[in-house]
Amino acid sequence: MVAGLAAKLEENPENPDGWVMLIRSYSHLGEAEKAKAAFDKATSHFASNPMVVAQIKRSVAEFVQ
Length: 65
Description:
The protein has one domain (2-60). Helix 1 runs antiparallel to helix 2, helix 2 (16-28) runs antiparallel to helix 3 and helix 2 packs parallel to helix 4. By secondary structure, it is mostly helical. The chain has helices at 2-11, 16-28, 32-45, 50-60. The longest helix has 14 residues, at 32-45. It is globular, with a radius of gyration of 11 Å. It contains 4 helices and no strands.
């Protein structure tokens, strides 16, 4: 399921909620490095939209440092 979500986001990264779900999923699975990589990719992708970046950061603050 997580791999499928990651693949969907690779094809269509314009889904902030999907990125949040992926980051949280990796965290719940104990995959901290993958969660951080997904966070970095999401915030990089939305770098031109600070409101979306802020939303992502708020939504995953407890999962990614």
